[in-house]
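The protein record now logged underneath.
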Amino acid sequence: MVSAINEFILAKFPGDEVTYFSSDSIEVDPGKEGVVDADYTTEFLNTLKVGNFPDYELKLKVGCPVILMWNMDQTVGLCNGTRMIVKTLGKWFIEVEVLTGTNVGDRVFLPRRQYPIALCFGMTINKSQGQKLDHVGLCLQRQVFSHGQLYVALSRVTTRQGLKILIENDNDEDPNSMLNIVFQEIFDSTYKLQCGLRDQTWD
């Protein structure tokens, strides 16, 4: 869903689009070239979408927001989750301006090998943790699935007026409602630890 939103907005964003491709080969142990080549073809590697690794194809425009996907250099504020805005799209580098953290306003050059960034008009709830935003559009076309996720999403925005929520669900009784997933066991365990009652149980 996040990828679809980002692609939709990028298509409407002004400017020329530049496409970068990731490294699509792997290091091979001597004597195993034939086996590895057969198992990990270029076409297969280009389809992988794994955790905090960038996609095979990265499409950007000058002025669009991006997010850092892993810790590059914590001493200059380049940490996992840092949001930045694209200033220059070169052949062998990308220049960005930092938008969050302790180094807001700094301009940084990302060297070309495999850019650890992703387009970030929209982001997942998990990736939004730690962000403080003036305006948030929350797309809830499906139920959140984990303890505390709804709270995390709603608490990213600094004012109630800056929050917009899109809800689409199959609840006939109240189509404008969304479940707040809470694992009661977490609160029970926390309470027991605080009271020193680990071995006791109650209703």
